[in-house]
Amino acid sequence: MSTEEVPKEFVRALQELGLTKSSALQGSPLTGGVSSDIWCIETEDGRVCAKRALSKLRVAADWRAPVERNQYEARWLQIAHLARAGSAPELLGQHAELGVLVMRYLPPSDFQLWKKELHAGRVDASTAKELGHILASIHSYAAKRSELAQEFPTDKIFFEIRLAPYLMATAERHPKLASALHALVAQTQQNAKTLVHGDVSPKNILLGKNGPVLLDAECATWSDPAFDLAFCLNHLLLKCLWTPSSTSDFLHSFGVLAQTYLQAVDWEQPQALEARAARLLPGLLLARVDGKSPVEYITEDSQRDHVRRTATALLVSPASQLQHIAQAWAQELTT
Question: Which residue from 5, 115, 122, 280 puts its CA 20 to 30 A from 228's CA?
């Protein structure tokens, strides 16, 4: 890993957090993030990962977001560790003024990115099962501690970086589906039951010897847990278009993740949560081709048409069970 001089804001943050005494640090910028500058930095005590939230995200659309979201990511990391040790990187510090968050560095030699594993067709259902347990553990822990809600006054941020660019922007592209998509926004806002990560995506999940580790909780908020479940399941559907030869494995993992998670739901009726996730999932599916953040690997019109047909049908006639969505998607892919 080649190194270069670390930006002064990161150096100052590490100094004031007591993580270095040096005034000149070396490090390497890390790739893959669209919402933050991320660096691997060499300190006297070893490597750390530091990130600073950007006000304008690196996407084609004009997508802006409040930089204070960095503070709430730090809080999410702390709570995730309390709920399930090792489910997120260890938080070393957060500098509110500079918007810099510092975590323990997780080396690629020990951790594989789930997105890369899925693209390569290495689809292990045990990973989906472990992830289901982790999500349910964090949701359950927070739901039973309602006082945590006041630590996440982030409704506006969540709307600006999740609900608006995904569901509202997609409604503008599909006027006939606008009422259904707007209803999903209202559903999410009206079922604020626990602490939500907001971006449970394979690009934000590392696989280590002790199981999955969740990264990038910049969207953390007190909201509907169905959002996290649907958001992650959505990616398993979309990956069928990226690596078609593993479609059956993706759909199997979809079922394992959903079942494992729902069996652990103890803060509300699992059937109610599943119904919300099943209604939300088609909206998120459509958003990944027609919202502000389309997935980069769906490049052909025929692939987009698969998404649009399936999502439209399910938005018009919602399913109440997640397995029905997987079945509809599997049938669509055979046409």
Answer: 122
d(CA 115, CA 22): 36
End-to-end CA gap in the chain: 46
pLDDT value for 309: 98
What is the token pair recorded at 34?
């669209």
pLDDT score recorded for residue 96: 87
Half-sphere exposure of 53 (CA within 13 A, CB side): 25
Sign of CA dihedral 163, 226, 325, 245: positive
Distance CA 184, CA 315 (A): 10
Neighbours of 247 (CB within 10 A): 18
**Rounded Cα–Cα distance for residues 50 and 14 (Å):** 9
Is residue 231 scored above 50 in pLDDT?
A: yes
Instruction: From 209, 8, 192, select the one nearest 106 (Cα to Cα).
Output: 209
pTM of the model: 0.93
Residue 124 is classified by DSSP as -
Residues 6+ apart with CB under 8 A from 314: 281, 282, 325, 328
Q: Which residue has the tokens 């019109």?
A: 301
Instruction: Count other C-beta atoms under 10 Å from residue 190's C-beta.
Output: 10
Residue 30's pLDDT is 86
**pLDDT at 3 exceeding the cut of 90:** no
Please calculate the CA angle 191-204-208 and round it to the nearest 5 degrees.
Answer: 120
Give the number of other CB atoms < 10 A from CB of residue 146: 11
Q: Which tokens hold the place of 303?
A: 């692939």
138 to 47, 153, 165, 328: CA distances (angstroms): 27, 18, 26, 30
What average pLDDT does the segment 102-124 reach? 96
- At 58 the pLDDT is 47
The structural domains of the chain, ordered by start, are 4-104 (3.30.200.20), 112-333 (3.90.1200.10)
The 10s digit of each residue's pLDDT in 129-167 is 999 999 999 999 999 999 999 999 999 989 988 999 999
